[in-house]
């Protein structure tokens, strides 16, 4: 099936041909592959840039949403949709929101049938907890390791179906001509060989872009914008990348302490607050009483994050520029049962979560924007799909906690069903695309490897992350953004002068990540500058109110230099969802007290 090829341009690369290529081995990619296999598509391949089962999904801890009504039988999919639209400040795509919320109860039952280790009620039902800005308890969970359990379940199901998988393959470019996709080019990190995988259908499930920020919840080699950058380069458009969610509770640490420093910004799951955790400033005040007396610590993530930032800015922050998160009023057994991974993490660092508070501060967590897709996850490049955090449309201006995992399983299944209906044949890259795109790109990869320069790729990426944090972070203004775009040009110049290691090395990976991150960073800053209002996670200190005229989506298109933008109006909810919106459901935090 795989044969080495020596092209006319003397560029060597391995070639493999499949019907469907799934890029990304997290929940979205795995679920797409499962759907394809269950519908009889056996000529497919899932590729991941890490080992099998090692994907960012495992870091999603708190839960996965679906209106099962385990504790609150009055909940239903339409109220879930209404909460999602409210949290997204009505720039979500209502049709995509409805697709996710309608499907999730059945998907939770499906995962249960496949053996997912959900936490249970005393009656043996799938348990559900409160999550921020949700009207009812609809977040199903497996302790505080839901993402890990979800991915284990999906990988297990894929293995039962004998889904082919190839690990440690870094995809660097899509083979596309602007109208259609024909496959993807990458580097096998084990063999250091350039590789072309031909495919008639390609699913991008390569994650998001929150790691373009200095303080973030991702591992350093994930969520660097791979998926959106690959799609934009192939001729697809991006949408709403200016909306970046800053989770309220990342770890705030003493960076001079070598034991704690690696944990800077890492997520302290919302489940801690969902189980009753409270936020206090350095003066011992439960400050959310001032910002959100009804929803308190479980208000929308953007509201809580800005409240923490305000406390720190006004001098009421902790030693490490955060606030305290405290769940010590709960019994120790409860904390250890409901939050086992969090308890173990802090126990390893010498802190007993059941007895003392921990320091937290906002951290970049999730990109609500991504690749613009239709109702089935397909882009405007024929045959190219984007699912999971790589796609845009479901979350709008701010994501409802617990909806990320929901989106992955629903749209993975939706895209898989759509592709299977086409009965995909093995892919072939046309000779013209090989000559004009594949071979020059492979030659460029070999030139990049072992190149000399004055800048280390990791250092260039650090500079870019600092730039985004300083100029397009939780609080933004026009002057900062314009200055940031000017500085972005300087980082781009530095990226042209990097000292890079051989193909497959960590240095080479970081050099590739720099390219992806630069692409997406420009769209984030240009969109944030163009959207001169505040909406959800996008907060402009020089335009603090939402503007009704900006109930629009910004689309980003590749240009000869940089990107151009257009805007499009947002659709309207269905009558059923509008009724749920009009009913005005809202979380009653004080049930937790």
Core attributes:
alpha+beta, FAD/NAD(P)-binding domain, Flavocytochrome C3, Chain A, domain 1, Methane Monooxygenase Hydroxylase, Chain G, domain 1, 3 domains, 4-stranded antiparallel β-sheet, 16 helices, globular, disordered N terminus
Describe the protein in words.
- The chain is of the alpha+beta class and 593 residues long.
- The chain has three domains: 13-244 and 366-420, FAD/NAD(P)-binding domain (3-Layer(bba) Sandwich); 247-364, Flavocytochrome C3, Chain A, domain 1 (Alpha-Beta Complex), CATH 3.90.700; 432-563, Up-down Bundle (Methane Monooxygenase Hydroxylase, Chain G, domain 1), CATH 1.20.58.100.
- The protein has helices at 27-38, 77-87, 94-113, 146-160, 226-234, 271-274, 288-291, 301-313, 332-338, 340-348, 403-420, 431-448, 457-471, 478-495, 506-530, 575-583; strands at 3-6, 12-23, 44-47, 64-65, 128-129, 139-140, 165-166, 169-176, 181-188, 193-204, 238-239, 244-251, 278-280, 323-326, 358-367, 370-371, 384-386, 552-558, 563-569.
- Strands 1, 2, 3, 7, 8, 9, 10 and 17 form an eight-stranded mixed β-sheet that branches. It has a four-stranded antiparallel β-sheet with strand order 16-11-18-19, covered by helices on one side. A four-stranded antiparallel β-sheet has the order 12-15-14-13, with helices on one face.
- Helix 3 crosses helix 11 and helix 13 packs antiparallel against helix 14.
- The longest helix is centred in the C-terminal third of the chain and has 25 residues, at 506-530.
- The chain is globular and about 70 Å long.
- The N and C termini lie far apart (61 Å).
- The model is unreliable at 1-9 (pLDDT under 50).
């Amino acid at each position: 099936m795989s044969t080495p090829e020596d092209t006319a341009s003397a560029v060597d690369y391995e070639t493999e041909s499949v019907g469907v290529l799934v890029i990304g081995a997290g929940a979205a990619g795995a679920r797409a592959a499962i759907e394809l296999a269950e519908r009889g598509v056996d000529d497919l391949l899932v590729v991941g840039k890490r080992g099998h089962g090692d994907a960012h999904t495992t870091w999603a801890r708190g839960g996965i949403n679906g209106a099962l009504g385990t504790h609150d039988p009055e909940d239903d999919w339409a109220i879930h949709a209404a909460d999602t639209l409210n949290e997204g400040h009505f720039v979500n795509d209502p049709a995509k929101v409805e697709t996710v919320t309608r499907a999730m109860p059945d998907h939770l039952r499906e995962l249960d049938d496949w053996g997912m280790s959900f936490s249970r009620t005393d009656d043996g039902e799938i348990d559900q907890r409160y999550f921020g800005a949700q009207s009812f308890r609809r977040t199903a969970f497996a302790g505080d390791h839901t993402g890990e359990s979800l991915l284990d379940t999906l990988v297990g199901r894929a293995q039962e179906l004998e889904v082919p998988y190839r690990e440690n393959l870094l995809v660097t470019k899509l083979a596309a001509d602007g109208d259609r996709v024909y496959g993807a080019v990458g580097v096998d990190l084990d063999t250091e060989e350039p590789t072309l995988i031909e495919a008639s259908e390609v699913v991008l499930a390569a994650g998001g872009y929150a790691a373009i920020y200095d303080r973030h919840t991702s591992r350093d080699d994930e969520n660097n914008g791979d998926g959106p950058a690959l799609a934009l380069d192939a001729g697809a458009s991006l949408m709403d990348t200016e909306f970046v969610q800053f989770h309220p509770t990342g770890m705030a640490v003493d960076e001079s302490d070598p034991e704690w420093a690696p944990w800077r910004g890492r997520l302290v799951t919302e489940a801690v607050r969902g189980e009753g955790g409270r936020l206090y400033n350095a003066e011992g005040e439960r400050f959310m009483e001032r910002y959100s007396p009804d929803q308190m610590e479980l208000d929308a993530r953007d509201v809580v994050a800005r409240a923490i930032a305000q406390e720190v800015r006004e001098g009421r922050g902790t030693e490490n520029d955060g606030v305290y998160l405290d769940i010590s009023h709960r019994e120790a057994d409860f904390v250890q049962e409901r939050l086992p991974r969090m308890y173990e993490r802090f126990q390893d660092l010498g802190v007993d979560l059941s007895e003392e508070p921990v320091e937290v501060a906002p951290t970049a967590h999730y990109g609500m924007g991504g690749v613009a897709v239709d109702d089935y996850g397909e882009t405007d490049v024929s045959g190219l799909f984007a699912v999971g955090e790589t796609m845009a449309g479901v979350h709008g201006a701010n994501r409802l906690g617990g909806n990320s995992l929901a989106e992955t399983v629903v749209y993975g299944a939706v895209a898989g069903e759509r592709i299977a209906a086409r009965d995909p044949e093995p892919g072939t890259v046309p000779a013209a695309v090989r000559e004009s795109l594949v071979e020059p790109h492979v030659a460029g990869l070999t030139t990049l490897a072992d190149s000399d320069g004055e800048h280390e790729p990791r250092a260039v990426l650090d500079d870019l992350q600092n730039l985004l944090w300083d100029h397009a972070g939780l609080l933004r203004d026009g002057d900062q953004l314009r200055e940031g775009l000017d500085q972005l040009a300087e980082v781009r110049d530095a990226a042209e002068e990097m000292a890079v290691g051989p193909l497959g090395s960590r240095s080479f990976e970081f050099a590739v990540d720099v390219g992806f991150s630069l692409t997406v960073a420009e769209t984030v800053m240009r969109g944030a500058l163009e959207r001169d209002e505040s909406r959800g996670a996008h907060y402009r200190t020089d335009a603090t109110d939402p503007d009704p005229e900006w109930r629009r989506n910004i689309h980003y298109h590749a240009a000869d230099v940089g990107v151009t933008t257009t805007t499009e109006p947002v659709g309207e909810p269905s009558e059923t969802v509008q009724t749920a919106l009009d009913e005005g459901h809202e979380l009653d935090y004080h049930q937790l007290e």
